[in-house]
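quick q for whoever's on today - can somebody do inverse folding on this one?? i tried earlier but teh output was garbage lol. tokens:
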């Protein structure tokens, strides 16, 4: 029986009267992850050589990368041939997610010729399954190529969230976190010399002390652990803060990153009660005063060195409630002053506390509005 042999890049095609036998042979498959022993699985027999129009035939429609490590190059080559009687034209490729991409070796394939499509899967950590939809002028319809794989992180951090809790103004606290490197390669293993740490605020500091390093075997992979200390230096501003640490690790042409969320609440070692300061409403000629207490939050000892007010109309008295830890301040109009108008000012308290040597307390004595019957609607 007469037959015709076609030699093309990446394979040999034998055309007979009974059909088209496609043998995808040749090459070492180094970029596909396949060995020469898998060649038999890539032999396809296609019946009906008299098919009119283009016909796209793939050697396989799926590939499983298995378990790989973040940063690996994940590319597989799907080979195909045109078993039809007319030119095959690839019109468009679509993807199920941004984690996959594809590129074809040729857009137009003549009858009996072959081509290939390289599919790339993202090596970001996590389990992945993605489809590539190949739209061509093949009457058989859309061809679907599927790739999957389980990607384990090359680096990880523990914990991913650090909460310093309440820290007093001017205070300093430290915490420890670990950076893990997972490797499947043989020794020598990677070192920690390439790690970089970025912090989102000057209040956070990566301590320059040498990190502790350890390595242990776990199944077929090596897990290296580096313990790093993070210091928090709280400033003079009270409030809740949300920042982060970025751990960077260059691998090949990529920069792998991990994030640690950092939270804390900056509190004063001395607190005023009420926090709103001195406040009172009065009617013209009415006597008025208000009381504010200054209390040490955690039993620290302090003394009040002096008090003053930027309003000449306000008199101040200081009374110890608990010596060296609790004081009461009384603000009132000075003797002989009859209030007819509102008074606003700021009381400044000087203390022996190293982080709150100066406390400012607002004063608001407000005249109560007087309504007449004519004001009623």
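ok took a stab at it. sequence:
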């Amino acid at each position: 029986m007469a037959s015709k042999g076609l030699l093309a890049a990446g394979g040999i095609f034998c055309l007979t009267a009974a059909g088209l036998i496609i043998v995808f042979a040749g090459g070492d498959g180094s970029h596909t992850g396949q060995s020469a022993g898998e060649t038999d699985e890539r032999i396809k027999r296609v019946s009906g050589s008299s098919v009119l129009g283009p016909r796209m035939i793939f050697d396989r429609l799926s590939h499983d990368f298995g378990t790989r490590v973040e940063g690996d190059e994940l590319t597989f080559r799907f080979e195909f041939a045109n078993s039809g009687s007319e030119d095959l034209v690839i019109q468009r490729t679509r993807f199920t997610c941004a984690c996959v991409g594809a590129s074809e070796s040729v857009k137009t394939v003549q009858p009996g010729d072959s081509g290939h499509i390289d599919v790339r899967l993202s090596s970001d950590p996590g389990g992945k399954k993605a489809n590539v939809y190949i739209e061509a002028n093949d009457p058989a319809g859309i061809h679907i190529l599927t790739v999957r794989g389980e990607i384990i992180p090359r680096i990880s951090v523990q914990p991913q969230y650090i909460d310093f809790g309440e820290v007093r103004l001017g205070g300093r606290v430290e915490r420890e976190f670990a950076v893990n490197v997972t490797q499947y390669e043989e020794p020598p293993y990677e070192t920690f010399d390439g790690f970089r740490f970025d912090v989102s605020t000057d209040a956070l500091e990566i301590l320059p002390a040498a990190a502790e390093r350890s390595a242990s075997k776990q199944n077929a992979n090596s897990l290296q652990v580096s313990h790093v200390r993070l210091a928090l230096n709280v400033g003079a501003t009270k409030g809740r803060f949300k920042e982060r640490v970025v751990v960077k690790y260059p691998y090949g042409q990529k920069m792998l990153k991990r994030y640690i969320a950092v939270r804390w609440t900056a509190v004063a070692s001395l607190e005023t009660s009420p926090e709103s300061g001195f406040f009172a409403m009065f009617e013209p000629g009415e006597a008025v005063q208000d009381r504010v207490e200054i209390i040490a939050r955690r039993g620290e000892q302090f003394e009040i060195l002096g008090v003053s007010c930027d309003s000449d109309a306000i008199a101040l008295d200081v009374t110890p409630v608990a010596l060296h830890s609790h004081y009461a301040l009384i603000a009132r109009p000075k003797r002989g002053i009859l209030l007819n108008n509102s008074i606003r000012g700021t009381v400044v308290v000087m203390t022996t506390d190293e982080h709150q040597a100066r406390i400012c307390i607002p004063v608001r004595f407000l005249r109560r509005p007087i309504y007449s019957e004519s004001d009623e609607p």
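fwiw The domain at 3-152 is CATH 2.60.40.10 (Immunoglobulin-like). also The chain is about 0% helix and 60% strand. so keep that in mind when u check it
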